[in-house]
Design goal:
The two termini are about 35 Å apart. The protein is α/β, with parallel strands linked by helices and about 400 residues long. It is built from 13 helices and 12 strands.
Length: about 400
């Protein structure tokens, strides 16, 4: 049986070049980067070299990159850190209703701490309206957090337009770039964002490591206190092997970005075209063009998404119904609900996340087995069969 992985939004396999780069730091180069002897200095070199590589992905100064344990910590540091450091200026924060839970839960926590949060609605494609966005910025607004691309539907927000609005009003702008990093450009010299979060395991790096871009001059309070690691903004001995791996993954992502964009776009376009020809009553969630090329979120009317996942898994195909962080939830996706999609349709949605290792043969195989699965599941669905009568 074939084994096809189409859940790259949840995590990616470690690239062979990344693993090769990490191995010495798991073996002979094991020093603590804070130590001043040769072992420590060796680790420090790896740490700073990785920082330079991640900085190139953002086109920023290496001194503006800080390493964390992943996207969730980076989001928490950006939102809570800016909020606590700037609370004298104001206690109003703006975000969108389709953010990752790392952002939403951080904002809900701040509500309990006396902050006021505005959760902006989105349109049927998942876009934040720039005009509505601007109208919600107040004199006491200190931070806006809008993700670059959505992890479930792949919609790319008009980040430059939104960030320019906040710049004019003197408000910090944070973006969760976990799903966009390495797939589409995020140039901090061209887009005036102040903070951005990324995660290693989303770009073929290791799990348990991430980074946050913090523009020079941004006021932020650390969440972890202890030593003076990461220039006193993130205490704790650095995960040198993981950081080295993240640096290499960022280097590869930047190097291969254009080729991978074309490759993934060709796969997803062919995939949806073939599915649309073979299966009736399906719909694409999100925008058909303004999305990252790797992601397709498709609803299959009359079928439970979980049943599709399990059926495909038996055929050797791995997919998801939404964010991996909410796997097992019986509630419809908060992203699809925010788009105004009927709960029954939302529950029938599958996220197909293509990656660099996927091929057109994978597309053909899934398009061969999936129609049979949908037909079988629909034949057992009283709601769908009655609706067709």
């Amino acid at each position: 049986m074939r084994s096809i992985y189409l859940d790259h939004n949840a995590t990616t396999p470690v690239h062979s070049e990344v693993l090769e780069e990490m191995l010495p730091y798991l073996k002979e180069k094991f020093g603590n980067a804070s130590s001043i002897h040769s072992f420590g200095r060796e680790a420090k070199v790896g740490l700073e070299y990785a920082r330079e590589k991640v900085a190139k992905l953002f086109n920023c100064a290496p001194s503006e990159i800080y390493f964390t344990s992943g996207g969730t910590e980076s989001d928490n540091l950006a939102i809570k850190g800016v909020a606590f450091a700037n609370r004298r200026k104001g206690k109003h924060i703006i975000t969108s209703s389709i953010e990752h839970h790392a952002v939403l839960e951080s904002c809900k926590y701040l509500q309990k701490e006396g902050f006021e949060i505005t959760f902006l609605p989105v349109d049927k494609y998942g876009f934040v309206d720039p005009d509505e966005f601007g109208k919600n910025i107040r004199n006491d607004t200190i931070l806006v957090s809008i993700m670059h691309t959505n992890n479930e539907i792949g919609t790319i927000q008009p980040l430059n337009e939104l960030a320019n609005i906040t710049k004019e009003k003197g408000v910090y702008f944070h973006t969760d770039a976990v799903q966009s990093a390495g797939k589409i450009p995020l140039d901090t010299e061209k887009i005036p964002i102040d903070l951005a979060s990324i995660s290693g395991h989303k770009i073929y790096g290791p799990k348990g490591v991430g980074a946050i871009y913090i523009r020079k001059g941004v006021r932020i309070t650390p969440l972890a206190h202890g030593g003076h690691h990461e220039r006193s903004r993130r205490a704790g001995t650095e995960n040198i092997p993981g950081i080295v791996g993240l640096g290499k993954a960022a280097e590869i992502a930047l190097r291969d970005m254009e080729d991978q964009y074309r490759h993934l776009k060709s796969l997803t376009e062919a995939f949806f075209k073939k599915l649309h020809e073979k299966i009736v009553d399906i719909s694409l969630n999100g925008h058909s063009e303004k999305r990252i090329p790797s992601t397709l979120n498709i609803s299959f009317k009359g079928v439970e998404g979980e049943s599709i996942i399990l059926s495909l898994d038996m055929k050797g195909v791995a997919v998801a119904s939404g964010s991996a962080c909410t796997s097992g939830s019986l509630e419809p996706s908060h992203v699809l609900s925010a788009l105004g999609i009927d709960p029954a349709i939302a529950q029938s949605s599958i996220r197909f996340g293509f990656g660099r290792g996927n091929t057109m043969e994978d597309v053909d195989y899934v398009c061969e087995v999936l129609p049979e699965i949908i037909e079988r599941l629909r034949s057992m669905s009283p709601i769908y069969t009655q609706a067709k009568k």
